[in-house]
Input
Amino acid sequence: MLVGLAVHAVLHVKARQEAGQEIVARFVADHPNAFQGDSVALLQCIYRNPDLPIELRMDAASKCARFERPVPMAAAVRDVTPVPQAAASWIRRLSC
Output
């Protein structure tokens, strides 16, 4: 019974993958001049194009900025250097 369910699941996944590939192939055939890059590349093309309205370019630049430059992360730092007196007391406690 479980083997039959597993086979059915695999066939279902394979059918979905094939359907997706068919949709992509049809889209490429119908739209040969479609943009080939990812969303960040599209936004870069928009904000770098001086022929587009500045409002559109600024919007694209603001949405793209977080992907182009890493955001500095705050890190908590604690000094764990042992104080000489405290180290001596720890050594005395451990040696007993």
Observations:
- Residues 7-34 form one domain.
